[in-house]
């Protein structure tokens, strides 16, 4: 339940358009709902602006269906990640307007498709094998109120493919970069722009990630180079943030 929904509910009670008992019935499962195998946090949308996201991997189709059905009763949007076709079909029997994104492996619902979305976010993928993760990020952005501009298959094996997109990247407010193994592409993109770059390493593709250590150390090294006089400045939504960060590579503040 969002703040505007709660406000509308209380206003209708105050005007006499809705009985107290009817309002209590609407609020019965707020702020949470215990199902025995799960406790659904219906209050999360009021706190964070989006309902609890369902992580479907490891859950039975019946459990996913029950959780999704309860969420759909109280919220206009929902997202279930790492979902299988079987889990989706079980949930769709309970929620007729539910949708499934096969590439992103995501169950989703959006009953407010025409609401305004904030521009300025870009999702970049190094290769086609990275699309499941990239599409999950793009779908998440769209459901949470952002436009997701996609730039795909521009990995470091052929950086000339990235060059035509540089003007677009420099107009962004934030960039999500998905790349396999050592995750070289996020560092390249970070060197071209002055906005936050969210690096998402994946475990597919060629190269070596040394048990997941190579990507964060490589990205931290790039972050060091981007700092000037010990300060890393980022532009996010038109605001400039300046902070000192402890460098995990050099074990001291970068100078």
Write up this protein:
Helix content is 33%, strand content 23%. The protein has helices spanning 3-14, 20-26, 44-48, 61-74, 85-92, 131-143, 166-170, 184-190, 214-226, and strands at 32-34, 39-41, 54-55, 77-81, 99-101, 106-110, 118-125, 146-152, 174-180, 197-202, 232-236, 239-243. Mean pLDDT is 82; it is low at 228-255. Helix 4 packs across helix 5 (85-92). With 255 residues, it is α/β, with parallel strands linked by helices. The strands form 4 sheets. The chain has a 4-stranded mixed beta sheet, sandwiched between helices. Strands 8-7-9-10 form a 4-stranded parallel beta sheet, with helices on both faces. A two-stranded antiparallel ribbon has the order 1-2. The chain is built from 9 helices and 12 strands.
The helix/strand series, from N terminus to C terminus, equals HHEEHEHEHEEEHEHEHEHEE
Largest sheet: 4 strands, mixed
Strand order of the largest sheet: 3-4-6-5
Strand content: 15-25%
Output the number of helix runs.
9
Features:
33% helix, four-stranded mixed β-sheet, alpha/beta, Rossmann fold, elongated, 12 strands, disordered C terminus, four-stranded parallel β-sheet, single chain, 2 domains, 255 residues
Fold blueprint:
Layout: H1 3-14, H2 20-26, E1 32-34, E2 39-41, H3 44-48, E3 54-55, H4 61-74, E4 77-81, H5 85-92, E5 99-101, E6 106-110, E7 118-125, H6 131-143, E8 146-152, H7 166-170, E9 174-180, H8 184-190, E10 197-202, H9 214-226, E11 232-236, E12 239-243
Parallel strand pairs: 3-4, 7-8, 7-9, 9-10
Antiparallel strand pairs: 1-2, 4-6, 5-6, 11-12
Helix pairs in contact: 4-5, 8-9
């Amino acid at each position: 339940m969002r703040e505007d929904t709660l406000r509308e509910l209380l206003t209708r009670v105050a005007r006499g358009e809705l009985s107290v008992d009817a309002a209590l019935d609407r609020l019965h499962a707020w702020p949470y709902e215990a199902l025995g195998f799960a406790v659904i946090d219906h209050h999360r949308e009021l706190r964070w602006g989006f309902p609890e996201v369902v992580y479907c991997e490891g859950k039975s189709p019946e459990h996913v269906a029950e959780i999704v059905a309860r969420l759909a009763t109280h919220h206009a949007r929902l997202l279930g990640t790492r979902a299988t076709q079987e889990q989706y079909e079980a949930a769709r029997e309970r929620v007729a307007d539910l949708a499934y994104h096969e590439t992103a492996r995501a169950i989703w619902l959006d009953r407010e498709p025409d609401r305004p979305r904030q521009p300025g976010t870009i999702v970049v993928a190094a290769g086609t094998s990275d699309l499941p993760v990239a599409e999950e990020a793009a779908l998440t952005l769209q459901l949470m109120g952002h436009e997701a501009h996609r730039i795909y298959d521009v990995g470091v094996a052929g950086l000339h493919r990235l060059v035509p997109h540089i003007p677009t990247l420099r107009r962004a407010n934030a960039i999500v970069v998905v790349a396999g193994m050592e995750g070289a592409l996020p560092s390249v993109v970070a060197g071209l722009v002055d906005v936050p770059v969210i690096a998402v390493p994946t475990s597919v593709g060629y190269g070596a990630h040394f048990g997941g250590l190579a990507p964060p150390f490589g990205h931290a090294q790039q972050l060091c180079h981007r700092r000037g006089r010990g300060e890393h400045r980022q532009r996010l939504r038109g605001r400039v943030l300046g902070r000192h960060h402890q460098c995990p590579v050099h074990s001291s503040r970068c100078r």
